[in-house]
Amino acid sequence: MDDTIEKGRNITDDAFQGPNMETLPDEIMLMITKKLDPASAVNFERTSKRNLRVTRDHKSAEEICKDMVYSPDIANYCDNPYTNEAKWCKEYGNLCDKVIFKSDQLIPAFDQGDGVYRIRDGVKRIYKHAFFDNYDIREVIIPNSVTEIGAGAFQQCWNLLRVSLPNSVTKIGAAAFHQCWNLLRVSLPNSLTSLEYAIFEKCTSLEKITVPKSVTVIEDCAFKDCENLVSVTIPNSVKSIGKYAFQWCKSLSAITLPIWITDLKDSVFYGCKSLEKITVPEMVFEINDRVFKDCENLVSVTIPRMVDTIHKQAFQGCTKLDDATRKRLAEFKQAAGQDSNYPFFHYRGVGIRDRRRYRRFLWPIYRARIRDKYSV
């Protein structure tokens, strides 16, 4: 049956007419639709209502039209479809929603010269790894029709300098700009709610970035190894910053943390050698392992009263801490006891249950205080 269907491409109008067509099992119908090309699909759906329903199914239509996106006439098909097949695929197969990178040809994005790519208006999603490992791209202009950029979409575009992101973009996948070594600047849209895992990791030329007020989460490794990053603006809408988020950002000299985060996660500022001072937000309970490790120029750290736990390696390698900071850390060591075998210093008690009870009691009190203080 499979071979018969394979040979039966370009199906004519009457190929599947007859009383027995409606009784074919679903698996046979599925096998038939998978072997159709767009021209055959146009004829096939005319033979019965069932055929029309099967071929216009979202997944079936995408399968039927999948090879058409590589046509050299794709731009014309999308802008002004002049064949029945192109019209059918545009309407039912999402032909023009995709950006495909294959054999050094980017479709349907247009190279304007000098490595500037303009994605055709109407494209809704830039699929994962669409531009992956493309050394020719220097700038990408994205239209307002795009709502999603897939994981790794621009990963290892080593010569990418600039990206224009419209406010229509609501999601940017993990590692979307990972290892874009020459990326100098990017303006993030106000519609994002999170910065995903490793989104700008190893963007070694990136110097400054402003996180939009719509963002609530910065995931792990978001800016890891951005060694020339000097300035980061983080709004108070952010409630969580992941592990290693700013690890080895060697040029980061100052940063203001949002007021609502409740802990500093592992290695978040590990190796930030230019960081000189930082104020830990008032809602923070815990400073985790290696948070400020090897921040060799860190002098002043303001630790609020809410902090009840500091892990032992949190300040390892911080040799220039001022007297006020050292005195504050000494309070934790004294509370834990010099011979404590715990991997962290507890300011109030040593039991996990005690800490949880203490936090549940104090958190609403401090939350109300913060809201009054910052009018939020």
Blueprint of the fold:
Blueprint: H1 2-7, H2 26-34, H3 38-44, H4 49-55, H5 58-65, H6 74-79, H7 84-92, E1 100-102, E2 105-107, E3 109-111, E4 116-119, E5 125-126, E6 139-141, E7 148-149, E8 162-164, E9 171-172, E10 185-187, E11 194-195, E12 208-210, E13 217-218, E14 231-233, E15 240-241, E16 263-264, E17 277-279, E18 286-287, E19 300-302, E20 309-311, H8 323-336, E21 344-346, H9 352-374
Parallel strand pairs: 4-6, 5-7, 6-8, 7-9, 8-10, 11-13, 12-14, 13-15, 16-18, 17-19, 18-20
Antiparallel strand pairs: 1-2, 3-4, 20-21
Q: What can you see in these coordinates?
A:
This protein has a domain at 2-92. 24% of the residues lie in helices and 15% in strands. The protein has helices spanning 2-7, 26-34, 38-44, 49-55, 58-65, 74-79, 84-92, 323-336, 352-374, and strands at residues 100-102, 105-107, 109-111, 116-119, 125-126, 139-141, 148-149, 162-164, 171-172, 185-187, 194-195, 208-210, 217-218, 231-233, 240-241, 263-264, 277-279, 286-287, 300-302, 309-311, 344-346. It has a five-stranded mixed β-sheet with strand order 3-4-6-8-10, with no helix packed on it. Strands 16-18-20-21 form a four-stranded mixed β-sheet. Strands 5-7-9 form a three-stranded parallel β-sheet, with no helix packed on it. Strand 3 (109-111) and strand 4 (116-119) form a beta hairpin. It is elongated.
